[in-house]
Amino acid sequence: MKLKKFITVVAMTAMVGTLAVGCGKSDSKDNGSDKKSESSWDSSNDITILSREDGSGTRGAFIELFGIEEEKNGEKVDMTTDEAQITNSTSVMMTTVAGDDYSIGYVSLGSLDDSVKALKIDGAEATAENIKAGKYKVSRPFNIAVKKDMKNEVAKDFINYVMSEEGQKIVSDNGYIPVDGAKPYSGKEVSGKVVVGGSSSVSPVMEKLIEGYKAVNSKANVELQTTDSTTGMTSTIDGSYDIGMASRDLKDDEAAKLQNTVIATDGIAVIVNKNNTTDELSADQVKTIYTGDATTWDEVVK
């Protein structure tokens, strides 16, 4: 695997502070506003490329959907440039892009907020409606998985709730695309504990699903652990998690040991700083950025 720079929250804070000092903002007398005007954005600047850590389901889906992985000697190789800075969660990705005028990154559509700007890809906006209509093609499944011989009755009942009308309404209300054919929840108040863990992209909607389930079954103790998709699958295989979460399809070796269920469909939003005057990129342009073929904004924004 390529060695890449890893952003921690501390490093990110230092970066933002350095930018503020470098721009003379600490001495400004503009009523505390340190936001650059949109007109000052300069496309000749280098692109700050942000990606997720190895094991992230969002990264795995992103490089697959944009053709950033290539087949070499029978194996798929991630061609993300060594210059990419690595963030370890959705929240760090969002905060880092919000603090760097020349950055580009990607997050789960359901996690998107107004601190950053989502780009159109090939002319289509990143919305649930466009994903349903097949216009926005950068989407992936949200999976949960259990051991094929799983006997935890609380886990089984919780999955029934997730896939019910009530659970799928929570999925829809939080900006994701629900599965078709859901029926009303008809579970029973089983008691005990279930551990759910994995993808940081699935985690926000899973937290809402757990809240909904506890409202109908107060006897259940559902614990959520946020890690990444690969950890979600391996920890379910070894028994640390009862239910694993993955924001990608299961790999062959995982699928051989686990039973998966698609609980929602999610888009991946390509995000930039709000000062960036770019509103749209093609899928090919995104690929040239992430493979390092384009290093400044004016190489992709004409």
Automatic annotation (TrEMBL):
Record flagged with keyword Hydrolase: no
InterPro entries assigned: PBP_domain, Phosphate_ABC_transporter
Region feature Disordered, mapped onto this chain: 24-53
Cited Gene3D superfamilies: Periplasmic binding protein-like II
Membrane topology according to the record: Lipid-anchor
Top-level taxon of origin: Bacteria
Signal peptide: 1-20
UniProt family annotation: Belongs to the PstS family.
Known partners and oligomeric status: The complex is composed of two ATP-binding proteins (PstB), two transmembrane proteins (PstC and PstA) and a solute-binding protein (PstS).
Function: Part of the ABC transporter complex PstSACB involved in phosphate import.
Name by which UniProt lists this protein: Substrate-binding domain-containing protein
